[in-house]
């Protein structure tokens, strides 16, 4: 049986990929700081830190991996220090590559982010465009990519992703879904006409598995097709929810100023990355991954958001009771947004 390592396999996307690999007949070893909720005859779950080099040495010595899928990352809206985020995302990534090299594991897949850019570039962003992150998480993901450049002897495929959506994706989305299910106004910044690309988690998992048959290192941008406006995405969910929720507008300049002030005061879960998602266009050019991996997306933004909402609506009480899970597997704290809900 072919065996693979998944880092962060207790989290949202790592869990999707882990279960997909198990379903396709792979044996999976998961390492994560968070307890793994899944059990399977071919799954070995290890609660541990990718910054722990002796632990990684032992894991690689005791297994024969075909590839390492590196999904683990600490997020800027977690309650962690800047140093924890940086060392986990950068040093931890380097540790996985070093362990691969030492154990003779030639393949590694690194999940990166569109947070490498801070604003709309006015066109679909290709792989050869120079990144320009402005916040810590984006800088850490770029530094992780640069660390992997130190391993030219490995076949490393980096996949840069926009926001990953599927049933089970919560975090800030849970706030949106709560507004919709409770029949509140759902706010867009400006006219809500900005187009922001997502990626369906199952489509991203399919791309990861396709890399197993790919020779050499590469960098791919991934994302959905037929990207509609954020207003249209929200309306698609409202239509399915069939509540009194409706899309309402906020003026762009003062709203962004208020968001930045609330973030600086530590009373809002929305950070610099989210300002862009809420108010600007951002779409990846996906031609390279289509041509070289033979990959194509299956769901649009609207379809995957509806799927994510249905999961939330069916399990809301249990979701809000969750404690020891990853940031994307539980609702984000509303902070000052609860006041906005009250007046909506």
TrEMBL record:
Stretches assigned to the NAD-dependent epimerase/dehydratase domain: 4-214
InterPro entries per record: Epimerase_deHydtase, Lipid_A_modif_metabolic_enz, NAD(P)-bd_dom_sf
SUPFAM superfamilies attached to this UniProt entry: NAD(P)-binding Rossmann-fold domains
Protein name: NAD-dependent epimerase/dehydratase
Originating organism: Granulicella tundricola (strain ATCC BAA-1859 / DSM 23138 / MP5ACTX9)
